[in-house]
Write a structure and sequence with these properties.
- Among the domains are: 104 residues, no CATH class; 114 residues, no CATH class.
- The protein is 62% helix and 14% strand.
- The protein contains 13 helices and eleven strands.
- Strand 8 and strand 9 form a beta hairpin.
- Helix 2 crosses helix 3 and helix 8 packs across helix 9.
- The radius of gyration is 42 Å and the shape is flat.
- The N and C termini lie far apart (109 Å).
- About 9% of the residues have low confidence.
Length: 511
């Protein structure tokens, strides 16, 4: 097998086109075509580059023996890591100081750009996501906010590290030839002949078309570096919008299914049906566009444009029809039968320290009563009312055990009749007693609050006294230590003075 056939087989085994091979060897595609057809033979430096590219020994590549060279060896991750470290060390030890300075400045600017984007665009997106949790209780909001902050910061840190590593490898490490960084490339438009070799004995098919070929450019371009980073950052942002779009489409599909279920119940909302269907189609198209952008796939923009136009027109029609349908609804203050309150009576004896705690308690004067009567109001939606009695305190609270089946039937009935009920239908608690007992219960409740306040205040005072005592003990201990140190210092000063006197006596004897 001659060199031309071996080159052709190696290129096909590595799934490379003639253009791609030419790019890696920094030659034109016509040169690769001539090598494969046998019309020309590469120079020695190109032979060495081909041997290294395909991991094929030079004697096998240029000899007459069969092609039996191993392709890229499968190395373990640890060996690949060691090779990368070795190549990185060689690069930093052999590059000139000016080149190292250019690399440092480029990646310093890249890190500053990352920080700016983090503090501006990414923070705005995170604030928008935080607003989605605003309906949660305080503790739940703090937990969700902490998890969101950690996930976003960690994901962005990993993304920045991956971007820096990827760009450094693609821009410098791969282009390091043992001496310096190879030249970058620009594009140039020219007409080329595309050749496809079918077999050794058949003709080469030629078609002429406009292609982009590479031309060397011997300067460092930070614009390409920033452009690559911005593209990756844009994809990172698109991922968050993609997640939001998927959630929104999921909710729209749920709403669409509920609307279809209402149709089977005899409730037809044409505007809602059209609006949800059109919104779902537009959302799915947005998801498709974002997925194609993330995976660098081409989209049929003409078809997508028409689908978007039809979708937005459908949304507009749905909103218009839905508004007209909504105007047919009537507002009524007549309480439905299912919401009418029924009352359950309970009686309690009045004592000197009896009082009632709880919210939404209504006191009603009834001088004919000597004891306390409490009416618990409930309906078919809120079925259960409860109390807790302990130490002459009756704590009244409403445990709202909602009957969702009856609530669903109530909503369907409203929708069928096109009515909106404007009124209050929550359970309530009414307390009946004579005027004297009501006043006494309120006084007892106020005294209980005052006692609770006094207990809490006394507890705080006790704690303050404990802390003050602790401070006094610490001050005494510190003062004792200070006195001890001052005594030791005085002893040392006396010793020093004694030695100074001895030195003076020795000096006088010597003189």
């Amino acid at each position: 097998m001659n060199f031309a056939n071996k080159l052709y087989e190696l290129r096909k085994q590595n799934n490379m086109t003639q253009e791609q091979l030419a790019e890696k060897l920094n030659v034109s595609r016509q040169s690769v075509s001539k090598w494969e057809s046998g019309a020309a033979y590469p120079e020695m430096d190109k032979l060495l580059a081909i041997s290294k590219l395909f991991n094929c020994p030079l004697d096998v590549l240029t000899g007459d023996s069969e092609l039996k060279c191993e392709q890229e060896e499968k190395k373990g991750y640890f060996n690949k890591f060691l090779d990368t470290i070795n190549k990185l060390f060689c690069m930093f030890t052999k590059l000139k100081f000016n080149d190292l300075l250019k690399i440092f400045v480029e990646f310093l600017l890249l890190i500053l750009l990352m920080a700016i984007l983090k503090m501006t665009i990414l923070e705005m997106i995170v604030d928008l996501i935080r607003n989605l949790f605003s309906f949660l209780p305080k503790n739940g909001y703090l937990v969700c906010n902490g998890i969101l902050t950690f996930v976003v910061d960690f994901a962005y840190l990993v993304l920045c590290m991956v971007i820096i590593g990827y760009l450094f490898n693609e821009r410098y490490l791969k282009n390091f030839d043992g001496v310096g960084i190879k030249a970058e490339f620009n594009y140039k438009k020219e007409k080329v002949v595309e050749e496809v070799k079918v077999s050794d004995n058949e003709e080469v098919k030629e078609t002429e078309k406009v292609k982009y070929v590479y031309l060397p450019n011997n300067h460092f371009s930070i614009i390409d570096l920033i452009a690559k980073f911005l593209l990756i950052f844009a994809k990172f942002i698109v991922i968050w919008f993609l997640i939001a779009a998927i959630v929104i489409v999921f909710c729209l599909i749920i709403g669409f299914c509920i609307d279809i279920w209402l149709m089977f119940k005899g409730i037809l909302f044409i505007g809602l049906f059209i609006g949800l269907l059109s919104s779902t189609i537009v959302g799915i198209e947005c998801i498709i566009i974002m997925i194609n952008f993330l995976f660098d796939k081409k989209s049929s923009y003409k078809a997508l444009l028409w689908i978007f136009i039809c979708g937005f027109v459908g949304v507009a029609i749905g909103v218009g029809v839905g508004t007209i349908e909504f105007t047919d609804f009537n507002v009524t203050d007549e309480v439905p039968e299912v919401l009418k309150l029924e009352y359950n009576e309970k009686y309690y004896d009045m004592t000197d320290d009896f009082f009632i705690s709880g919210n939404d308690v209504e006191y009603i004067v009834d001088n004919s009563l000597d004891n306390i009567k409490i009416l618990y109001g409930y309906n078919a939606i809120y079925e259960l009312n409860s109390t807790y009695y302990s130490n002459n305190e009756l704590y009244v609270y409403v445990s709202e055990n909602i009957n969702f089946t009856k609530l669903k039937d109530l909503i369907i009935n409203f929708l069928k009749n096109k009515e909106i009920y404007d009124g209050t239908y929550y359970p309530d608690v009414k307390v009946y007693a004579n005027e004297e007992n009501i006043a006494k219960m309120k006084v007892n409740k106020m005294n209980d609050y005052r006692n609770s306040y006094d207990e809490e205040r006394n507890s705080l005072y006790e704690r303050i006294n404990e802390l003050e005592s602790q401070i006094d003990r610490d001050n005494e201990r510190y003062q004792e230590a200070l006195d001890s140190y001052q005594g030791q210092l005085k002893e040392y000063e006396d010793v020093i003075e004694e030695y100074q006197n001895k030195i003076k006596e020795l000096e006088s004897i010597l003189n």
